[in-house]
């Protein structure tokens, strides 16, 4: 609906390992990809032929798009290789034989004599392999595939997947990596992994990316998909499994080559003949086959897969107003060296990894050491683990390789917040899906964010994944107290995306619907209606002529129009159109789009608190929004929050029944009707509870005017919805009976009423009794008025009057119909005039002030009123003819027919009878059956009649006799009147006219004039007659009887309900009818005219059917109703638990739990044993250390000698310690005191890799013979301001280290540092890189970091506190696209006091003042900074100075704020609250923490 909606490269070292894309640090430019926003735009649902393209059209579009955009790679220069193919053929350096090359590759002399170079001799051309793929012999499951160049942009591939292949953007990206060769897993672990992986993929809407081949971890994923699909475990569609494989390493790839697309292409999985190639896995749904123009080379897809995963993780997906960057997680099974690189790259870039322990090799090595302190993860330990888990290939590990593995594993384990080890059965871990999602949340929790945005991000992820269990266990904890307003954006998202469990969770955590629903919220919800729902289509039609940008009030007013159509004319508009003055005050509703990274959700979601002026009942508005989309669970939760719950349930029933009338889909129609019946049952249940408690208050609920539901009543809503079960409730019928008897007692006999009607003085004898004691004791005229105004009396008096009218009418027609009207006939005219007046009164009766048009429509909606009008009009026509002498007889005929219609009117009177009322309904429904039967009968009558007439009679020209012969006689034949001459036996010439001239005789059939015998084929006419009687008499008549029987049975089963439902209309009619019967009713009409026309007294509906209560009384009544509704819901829950099916399910769940616990018992016992052994080992180590100290102390004191001193074995690292079981395991242990950032393998801003330096090899004193770091010094433009490159010693010999070298101070805060070979050595140890890197100077590079702080204050000026401590604000800056903020300091030019970065944010006139502030500040730190730019020969040392403004009125603070500016458009400046999650660089956070400790402030 247009009007409603305008509104993430690292290569792996092994070609047999899967790669993994890393999580990016900045948002990608989305201009090159399609908008991922889930839009509610679209047209109404149409037929399949109108909405969907044909298969050929879609295939043509896909072929055209791929041909224009997707390329493959081909070798264009054949160079014979020294290696032969598997078949012994001569091949090119690219791996392909000569016959698989282009003609130009073998015949061209352009590259003659050149060595084969893939960059020159491989070119791109349009791909020839794409389309649908079917695996032969494996069913009809169809997948998608494409062959593309390794240089294809990731944005183009993503566009192919989302737009051309029709995949929805994922909520999560799961990259499964590990061993590419087959490996063994324990059966139970394999089952747990498969079940968990598919569960998280299905529930969270994830994409699973693997290598796509039928081996190793890819095979495990494929088998998981297959097993779950065969078991029918999928309930929400197919799991998207994307295989990214190398085209040149693919076996049987020739079958996939179709230049115009394979639709489908048949692929054979031939593992026996694949050789060194590989086959595709048949259980993946999509394949991306990466081509580099070579054959038999693995690992070609790794760079493209990495880039694609990175790109996807940079995309933002929005739905329901919540936008999330697509998260990515790496799941690791087994694996080798390439897998280690993948994990290292992922962890380094902030991507969480889940390692499955027990799967083998790399996964088990990491799992074994994950819980150890970094200081215990040594080279010897890693060597031990490798020998244990890499038994087959351990000999291939060189010493340098082991050192590299040690360094990488240390870096992986150091960031424990990104590493999750799944251990089967330990610490309650049983499901891989929970481990994956918990890993993502744990990683999100470790990110640095401003304020509480990190928590919002976690909750948004849980909502996007639809995992309320994760939200309950990980997010809604005591660690975070949520304010209701903070949950509003996610509440909107849960509503729009139909996640009822989250709506329930938010309600349980403080969200109040009355405060949540504002005009902006409701407007946005209706903007995001489900495009396929019927209400969306109806609203679209109403908005057809509206402008594109609608005010909220206008849209809601159009919604109200559609709702009125659904609820009926008895309701008023639920949202009125705003006045012009109100429209000027309407705010512009923002787009409720919550970006979870970089933007505070509350900053973009503006919640209005002015809903009191916009809606009466916000819960009602939300309930309607849910019910019109047929969202059962959502509506049930909201209805449980409603106050006017009976009216709400009946309104929902009415809306659903009206929508079902226009629904074309049979399944949706049945769902609507079932849901409508459920809400009727809820209304009955709540009303039953109310009626049991208090009958009078329950009956007040029936006729109370509900302002929230358009000033209608519960009873009226039930009647409009035709909720017969509700209306037939005993409490409602008791109320109707009370209304029917008026003020009379219901135990009065009917004979007493008739007797008192005829002889009214008997009223004073006590023959009839009254409910009101005062009337019972009173003998005045009030008793007469109360008696004759009772609907039951009015009804019977009208019956007597009507019978008298019919008798008089019959008498005049049969006895006293004179040329001049007699006195009896005149009396009939007066009588009829009174009936006409009464019908006019009913026609114009409008107590609700709805207007004449509505009153007329309501009047003519009644069948009996239509009959009355017809009878009156026919009487007027007959009277007109009767008064004309020439048409006297015609008038009598018309009046006679009119008498029949007046007699039919008696059936309406009988509806009050419990016996006759349902029978009248049966007759009415049978009349419909007769109509359809007559259509079938007419086919046979006309077909037989025309055929018979044409065979027997020649050229009959008399129309009346044609009708008789073709229709009339054929119809009478059904009832036994067979034509006498149809067989020629009973033919008599004197009974017919030979020429058809006798008007009273039929024309004779074809006869022989000589013999006077019929000549028509008698056998044919007899055969036609037999067939006609067979079908008409036997088949059709029995069909009619069956139809009548079905109708009778239907009505008979609901006789009581139908009668009770029909009573209301009759009771309401006679309750509001004047007490005098016709013709005396004319006096009442005269009195009514005086009141309405002369005295201008408006009509009012009787309070018995529509009663407006006082506000206090209404509030008390609704509170009472809501209380009993809670009782009803509790009773329903109890009954649900008591149902046999539920009990069986509960027992089954308990049995499953017991079986699971028994299966896990031995694993838990072994886990407990491991914990006890680890504890014992630690205690023994502590004892050994103590004994060593005692021995040394005794020896130093002169006790004993060096001989005989026991040698204590060194403490060994505990093997396989479980981090989850070891409560003392820390994320960063104290022994990890060496610089960390300065040893990152990849040097920043370049592609230089450091030499891996494990922790134990950092100190220069530690021997490290194989240490051979690369030399790197960045080339800088300002060569005069920096030291020489350092690759030659002569320029460096002029540098004076450990001294003041001219304007430069080359002294270190840590004392004298060592100079070796003319280069200084980093006092903190090895870094893995020589040279000065990106720094300016060899040796210490001094910087200044001013920490400018002030107290955080509230609006009233008070200092904010958290956990009793005061809160600080610090001035931070950010450069360009970096996600991290920094302190406004850095390096200084020689002779300058202010850092260059600080000068960029301060105006020049304030520099001198700030220098003064620096001299007055307090030094909080002076020393070495662990910076990624540090090298073995250059490092950063800093002085941190605290400048604090304790008073908000400080003049210098005001001057500082006024002189802050940014000389660079990409630079940002802000005051930020000091918190441990502030997104600063790590070394700056250390300084900030010291400042917070200095002021005893919160951190």
* Gross geometry: elongated
* Strand elements, count: 33
Helix/strand class? alpha/beta
Fraction of residues in H or I helices: 40-55%
Cα separation of the termini: 50 Å
Low-confidence stretches: 1-53, 580-613, 1207-1231
Strand order of the largest sheet: 10-5-6-11-9-8-7-14-15-16
Which percent band covers the strand fraction?
A: 5-15%
Radius of gyration: 46 Å
Main sheet properties? 10 strands, mixed
Oligomer kind: single chain
Would you tell me the overall average pLDDT? 81
Query: Tally the helices: what do you get?
Result: 53
Which characteristics define this entry?
single chain; 33 strands; 53 helices; alpha/beta; six-stranded mixed β-sheet; elongated; disordered N terminus; ten-stranded mixed β-sheet; 1499 residues
Descriptive account of the structure:
With 1499 residues, the chain is of the alpha/beta class. Helix content is 47%, strand content 11%. The chain has 53 helices and 33 strands. The protein has a ten-stranded mixed β-sheet, with helices on both faces. Strands 26, 29, 30, 31, 32 and 33 form a six-stranded mixed β-sheet that branches. Strands 12-13-17 form a three-stranded mixed β-sheet. The two termini are 50 Å apart.
